[in-house]
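Bug: token stream looks shifted between consecutive jobs. Job 1:
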Amino acid sequence: MLAHFIRAQLILAALSLVAYISVLSLLRVPYAVVLGTLGGVLEFIPIVGPLVAATVIVGVGFLANYTHLILLAIFLGVWRLIQDYFNSPRIMGSKLKMHPLAMIFAILVGGEIAGVIGVYLSIPIMAALLILWKRWSAYSEAPSSSASVIGADDSRAA
């Protein structure tokens, strides 16, 4: 399950890398490839990574006297919404075999209970609970091996 989580994070990071490089190149942002690569790599770090990437991209645009900073900030905000509410639940849900609505619910509950750390830990905790549930249900449905041995001894005695 942890491998699925890491694969899903890598897919989301690669998707962000492609989106950042293409849109930053279209907007003719200075150092678009470097900033897009940095944004894609930082996407692997949940919560903090995208925030740092957006700050660096806007900061470099400001320092390089980029004239369309508002358009750049709008793109970063819209991409964050698409990534958080559309891509992430679908990709994480398919990789972890969890419904996207359950993923969003887990993130919201984690945020309410423990704030930013709860948002960060909600999906791995939900995945661990899912593993425990599957193992427990498989264990409880399995026939007891001692019952079959006792039954076999009773049939020979008769």
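Job 2, same session, no restart:
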Amino acid sequence: MPRSAATPGPTPTPSPSPPSPAPAPGPARPRSVATREALLLAGLRRFASDGWRTARIRDIVADAGQGNDSAINYHFGGRTGLLESVLRSGVARMEPERRRDLDRWASSAPDLAEIVRAVVSPLADLLDDDEGRWTLRVIGQLGPVAEVGRTVGPGPVADTALQDQLAMLISAVTARCGQEWARHRVRQMIVMLTAELATRARGPADAAPAHRQYVTDLVDWLVAGLGRQAPAPEAGPA
């Protein structure tokens, strides 16, 4: 007899796929990083208001919400290390604009006025917010001890666009009055510029003249001083 065909059974229903696991949360921000940033901001404020040499470490630590005065030593190596970190942070904030100017100059060499504008404008733009104004008040405490060789070389300015701009500024001024006078005048510029901006940073944010006019006039004044011919040498004794 012919073999009868088997009756097919019911088709099994596939089991539902397990739900995809939720994406793992990103790594938690290390507490040490948050602590360091809080100390940096607290140090900036206290250095601006109380002076970087005289601000009390315990006040900085307390402002940052910490309870151990040794936190400054742990994260920065001490008061001077904290100051250098404050300055590096301020310099880094201005770097993008300075880099853009350097990129433009690769195809079109700037004159003295353009170099001065590029040095001054990003610094003056720190007046736009509280953190920038605090930074200017700290920088202003260091201007009177500026040394051109150190400003253009090591320290917070090393390997930055600002370093390149200052080197170009010295070169442009040297063409007007010689290297000795150029270095002297650029040092004068650093002292006067940082003191002036620190003074404005301590005043009201809407102080006259308006910001754009203020920066334009400041640049014009500095260019006039930097671009003068060297004084005639003094006559020797008769």
